[in-house]
Fold this sequence. Notes:
This protein has 179 residues and is mostly beta strands. It has one domain (2-171). 9% of the residues lie in helices and 47% in strands. It has helices at 38-46, 159-165; strands spanning 2-5, 8-11, 19-22, 49-55, 65-71, 76-86, 91-100, 107-117, 122-130, 135-137, 141-144, 148-153, 168-171. Strands 2-1-5-7-9-12-13 form a seven-stranded mixed β-sheet, with no helix packed on it. Strands 3, 4, 6, 8, 10 and 11 form a six-stranded mixed β-sheet that branches.
Amino acid sequence: MAxxxxxxxxxxxxxxxxxxxxxxDHPRLGELVGTNEKFAAHNAAVWEHGLLVVVPKGVxxxxxxxxxxxxxxEGGALFWRxxxxxxxxxxxxxxxxxxxxxxxxxxxxxxxxxxxVGEGAKLEYVSLQNLSGRHGTSRPIMRASSAMRSSTGSPAxxxxxxxxxxxxxxxxxxxxxxx
Length: 179
């Protein structure tokens, strides 16, 4: 489990053998999400907190990995990066939850997720948003290197309206972008 706020990132625990650590620099960072789109460029220019997750070859996790991103300062802004590497044959779920400290807290979030899924690997990526009504957010920018299953939604939304919005998405293979 990891918690992210305007003040930084705190890693509480991770399964043995799983890389679950603050993201500073990584050779694959920026490979899938470049800077040619305005929100991605803004994120790339000012992000401060990120998480690197690497699940080794053939490892299967029964419990999901969990990341909580919380806006807690009035007028605060979180520029967040997530880099996930599912090595060949790895199988796991990752839940990323965006929350506001209170229902009336004005804030802003700009997030980028780069998800590398190796051959034969399975990654289920779930992104939940439980943000205040006064919270601005850019469209989450997510790119995967291979087919994977992704779910996004708000706990406050009804199942019927979520289905109408098509909140379940399957990302298809995409060639990595080169700098």
